[in-house]
Write a structure and sequence with these properties.
The structure is a single chain. The protein has 350 residues and is of the alpha/beta class. It has 14 helices and eleven strands. It has helices at 2-12, 17-25, 30-45, 84-96, 114-127, 142-151, 165-171, 178-191, 208-221, 247-260, 270-275, 279-286, 298-301, 317-330; strands spanning 48-51, 53-58, 101-106, 132-136, 155-157, 194-197, 200-201, 225-226, 229-230, 290-291, 334-336. The strands form three sheets. Strands 2-3-4-5-6-8 form a six-stranded parallel β-sheet, with helices on one face. Helix 1 (2-12) runs parallel beside helix 3 (30-45), helix 4 (84-96) packs parallel to helix 5 (114-127) and helix 10 (247-260) runs parallel beside helix 12 (279-286). The longest helix has 16 residues, at 30-45. The structure holds iron/sulfur cluster. The site of iron/sulfur cluster has 9 residues, from loops.
């Protein structure tokens, strides 16, 4: 039955809610899902794995998401911000190591005005014309997003985290809204960004129906990138006692996402590598095709701890790059020096 469902998902890139529930809740057919996801990924991307250099520019955040280690209510965090010069240094090191995408990520830090972000983006754009600039700076106005885009940013990552409004209020304080998160995502698409979204797997109170709502929302959004990571608790948050998300379920969902969005860029996240020593390799084998090594200065890495025991907080950028190259090669894939844009959706009949 589920083998037929995997085939149906492969051929139609869709299932009914009931069929999705069967696939999500059973581990009996993971192998078939993985096989088909690999087939689809190879037809679009071969064995190429794209790297994105992640620069975590600030761990200040005005928000208080209950699952996040750098939420504003966590008074134990030692806060930091990178200067424009430090950010450009990270880009220089990254470029020399072969990165052609820089991901500028941070909490929602109001210190960085639109003008400051535009200046940083323009400076990177001017120095590295052959690179993509991805921003991941949370919720902002249409006008802000447009000014960043006009300054040279091409991509924006903003996970919706959960598409179910009742579940959303269990994970976020009352001043945050799912509607605004969705508004941001559609604004970003309208402006012309390659948009990335995604959700946590195994977050507190999550049900199968919530996951199906996430898949349906992603179908509506049609993002270029889909990032999912297992929920991992942080000891200084209200969710400190909740169990982490399940590796198997996360891998199954990566395969399902590859079949739903054959063309998409799917990262094997650091969270996967945190819950299992070879989690990122397993993520690639399940259908992912992107890794995001850290380019942030080593002295701030540990301070950007969204969840407990985050890996790769001690290595220099070059070590991270070489370590990942070895890991990806060990499973028969290869990291490429390439801007790594999303591919066009192919016509299934051609
Ligand atoms: S998840 Fe993002 S928006 Fe929420 S508190 Fe953490 S950094 Fe801020």
């Amino acid at each position: 039955m589920s083998d037929l469902l995997s085939q149906k998902l492969y051929l139609a890139s869709d299932l009914t809610d009931g069929e999705f529930a069967i696939l999500i809740e059973s581990d009996s057919f993971d192998e078939e899902l993985r096989r088909l996801a690999d087939l689809v990924r190879r037809s679009y991307y071969g064995t190429d794995v794209y790297v994105r250099g992640l620069i975590e520019i600030s761990n200040y955040c005005r928000n208080d998401c209950y699952y996040c280690g750098i939420r504003r209510g966590n008074h134990f965090v030692e806060r930091y911000r990178l200067t424009r010069g430090e950010i450009l240094d990270c880009c220089r090191i990254g470029y020399e190591l072969g990165y052609r995408t820089f991901v500028i990520q941070g909490g929602e830090d109001t210190f960085y005005s639109d003008e400051m972000i535009c200046e940083i983006v323009s400076a990177i754009r001017e120095l590295y014309v052959d690179c993509a600039i991805t921003l991941s700076l949370g919720e902002r106005s249409y006008r802000s997003y447009k000014s960043f885009f006009d300054s040279g940013a091409n991509r924006y990552l903003l996970r919706h985290e959960t598409a179910d409004s009742e579940h959303y209020v269990k994970l976020h304080p009352p001043e945050m809204s799912l509607d605004n998160r969705k508004r941001c995502l559609f604004d970003l698409k309208r402006i012309g960004y390659q948009v990335g979204s995604g959700f946590m797997v195994g977050s507190p109170y999550q049900t199968t129906q919530n996951i199906i709502a996430d898949l349906r929302f992603l179908q509506e959004l049609q993002p270029a990138m889909v990032g999912i990571g297992s929920f991992i608790s942080h000891h200084q948050t209200p969710f400190s006692n909740f169990r982490s998300g399940d590796l198997k379920l996360t891998l199954r969902l990566i395969s399902i996402l590859r079949l739903l969005f054959p063309y998409s860029l799917i990262p094997a996240t650091t969270a996967l590598g945190t819950i299992d020593p070879v989690g990122r390799e397993l993520g690639i084998l399940a259908g992912a095709n992107v890794v995001m090594p850290n380019l942030s200065p080593v002295n701030v890495r540990k301070k950007y701890e969204l969840y407990d025991n985050k890996i790769c907080t001690g290595e220099e950028a070059a070590e991270c790059r070489h370590c990942l190259t070895r890991r990806i090669a060990s499973i028969g894939f290869n990291i490429v020096t390439n801007i790594g844009n999303v591919k066009e959706m192919k016509d299934k009949c051609s």
